[in-house]
Structure formats: structure tokens, C-alpha cells
Write the C-alpha cells for this entry.
Amino acid sequence: MATRLELLTTEEMARADQLAVELGVPSLMLMENAGRAVAAEAIKMVSPGARIAVLCGPGNNGGDGFVAARVLREAGYAVSIAPLAEPDKLRGDAAVMAAKADHLDRVDIWTLNLSGCDLVIDALFGAGLSRPMAPEIGDKIFGRLFGGPPILAVDVPSGLDGTTGQSTGFVLSATRTVTFFRLKPGHLLMPGRALCGRMVLADIGMPDGVLAHIPGPLPHANAPATWLPAFPRLAMDGHKYSRGHAVVVSGGIEMSGAARLCARGALRVGAGLVTVATPPDALLAHAAQLNATLLKAASTPGELRQLLADSRFTAVAVGPGLGRAADVMERVLAVLDCHAATVLDADALTVAADNPARLFEAIQARPERPVVLTPHDGEFKRLFPDLSGSKLERARQAASRSGAVVVLKGPDTVIAAPDGRASINDNAPPTLATAGSGDVLAGFITGLLAQRMPAYEAACAAVWVHGAAAERFGRGLIAEDLPETLPGVLTELLGGLR
């Protein structure tokens, strides 16, 4: 089912355009609709009669710009067109739309005077640019636009790779970006997410049926619609044991707070019980600060195996504050021997970097017991030093190689499953860049796994509610605030659902 959350690479979007035409949708109609969508957003950004400059490139992106310019002029705006190519150099639909806008004022793009201009529409290149921006364009055109009037980009800001979110050299940072039919990964992946400004997705009349002809699974923007049906519900006759029992494996007293944050996250997201398995030296520290959490003394690999043999445990988190002692890798492997769903975070990933293959073998030896890895970029590079490509591509490759669901964290967290499914999260505010927030995220994932939510959906949901809780709290956020803000997020998310 099409959700409008699917993400299409630049090549896939070109294929979708072609398929739409093959299904009988005129390409000129699509361009007309795209240009009108751009004009509609421009009108929202300026006052009536404002002065608008439209920079038009030589391809279809420029064609959208010519349409927008015509529509805006008809609506009473003072519009100037600054084309990059002479009319006789244009081809196809762009040439048709340029001819329809031939009566509009044209100015030299190389000497464009922005004095008194209220808005610039960037219809130069869009996602179709396949090579770095020519230096003279960056110097002579873009240079005059930095710090100038607001910029409305068509499809993507010129110079941005719509597939990877990376710069191809110069990029014209936008105040707002209008794209069509579906977002591209580059709209959500950093730095593209920041360079696009506010994103607007416009319907231009393309049939959703074209998606069936594009090989999948297609990645998605991470949103409740993709995982909410699997989110745990509360049964009227339920009890704490039916809501699952999570275990958080703690390290020594020096960093024991990380395990407590993880445990608190697991409890708040709905796990019926949470046990912290801890070395004896941290027992009192945990006991002094944890009330609803059980404590078990267990620190050696053997003690962990013995504890986790209890079939009532449904999920385990290991890594937050675990430390890097000589036997830590063996403790991680002991956890992977158990029957429960497992989250590997922080130190559990760091100690595996010396021999990642050993970790992946242990994960693949338990195919029916899901594992979630939650690396930040540094941990990821140590585990997967040879992987390259966009963040989305690397996360997918890592999930395939490891056999685990991979949560590659950051302002543009990517969640990838071994079967190829993937999501990019875009609701994380910068306030999440605070010590301990990752430990809470690991707890959210563990708590959802404890309630038997499927691993990929649990990871996607946890990442989203983590961002939503941070956004809800606002400035001044510290990690301890995230579990306490979560109930309001879940109440709003679930509404009347139990």
C-alpha cells in the first residue's frame, strides 16, 4: 500500500516519471502541476505583489521554474526570469514551458541584481545534476545569494545529491524546498535535511501504481503509520508478566548511571518488569536510585548465562556503561547465547570492533531471536570499516552483513533490517545531543522488544518516540527527562487505544 512515506532515489524518481507517462499521464501536465505547486508555496512566503526572481536551469527543473514564473505573474507578482541557457538550447517540455513564459521579464543570471528582491526560486538543477557544480556558477551566481532573500528550491537545492544528501560541490541552501510525488533520501539525510529547509511534498497527479514497478523494498521516512499497527497494546486482563520482562546488563559503579537510564527507558515504554544485572560493587548505587526495578548480582560471563537461562526474560540490553574490561566481550557473547531478544549498544559494540566477525557469527547463530545494534557513526566505522556509500546504503549493508537490525544514530538516524527494509528518521531535534540520550534510546528499544514487538518495528518506533519526547520537552533537555516526557508522547500517539 502506498503511504507517501516511500523514498525514491533520483534514478527511481526518473523511472517513476517515465512509468507515469507510459500509464497515460502527459508529461506536460506533470510539469504544469509541479510549477503550480512551486508557485503556491512562493505565494505563502511573500506578500501580494512581491518581487520574485526565478532562476531557471536548462532541464526539467528549469521547466518547472518557467511554469511557476508564469503563474506568479498572472497572480500579480513582479516576476523576473533569470535563465541559465538561451531558449534555443532548451529541449522537450522545458522548451515548451519556456515559450509559454516568453512574455515575462528576463534578466542576465550572471549580473542579477537582488536589491529589493523578496524571494528567489531556485529552479536551476534539482536532483538531475549528475556532476559537481561548475565553479563559475558557485562563484558568480550562488555567491551573491548567500545572506540574501529567502530561497525556495524546486525538487532539491541546486548542488545537492537527492539520493545521498551530500553536496556535489557548491549548494544553494534553501529556506523551503518543494518536491513532488515522493521525498528522496537526500531530503532526510544530513546535510541535505538542513540544506532543504522546510520540506513540502506536492501531489502533481502521478499515480501511486508506478511504485509497484520499482524494485523494493523501498525505504521509508520513519513515521507512526509504518509501525503503529505493531505497537504493543494493553490488554484489559493483562498483568506485569504478560507485558514482558527486560534485563539491562550493567557495568561497574563508575558508569552505572547509563544502565539506570536504559532501565528507566524500558520501564517507561511499557515493559512490565525490568531487572538490572549488575556487578556487586554497583548494587548499592542502583538500589539507592531505582525503585520499580529489580536487581540481580551478575558480572561474569558464567553468572550472566545462569541468570539469562530464565525463560521469563523476553529482552536484554547490554552495553550502556558496561566498560571495557578484559572479559566484556565474553559477557556480550554470553548475552547472545540467551533466548531473549537483544539490544547491543555502546561498549558492547566498542569491544567487538577488534573482531566484528565473531560478533556477527554469534548473531547469525540465533536467527529466530532478534538482535538490534545501535551504533553512532564512530562505533559503526569501527565495526564496518570497509562500507561506503550514503548513510542509508551503509546501514543496509551492515544489517545484511551482521544479521541484525541496525540503528545508525545521528540527527538523521537510519534503521535498517537484514531483509532490506529501511527507514530514515527526521524528527530528532538538536537537544538530543546530550550525554545519556543514547542509553535511553536503547532502553526504549529493549522495552518494546520485551513486549514482543517485532525488532525492526520496535527500533523504528523507539527512535521516533525518542525524538518526539525530546521535541516535546524543548530546551534544557537532559537524558533523565526523556523517560519522564514519554508518557505524554504515547498518550497523544495512541489516543484511545489501549
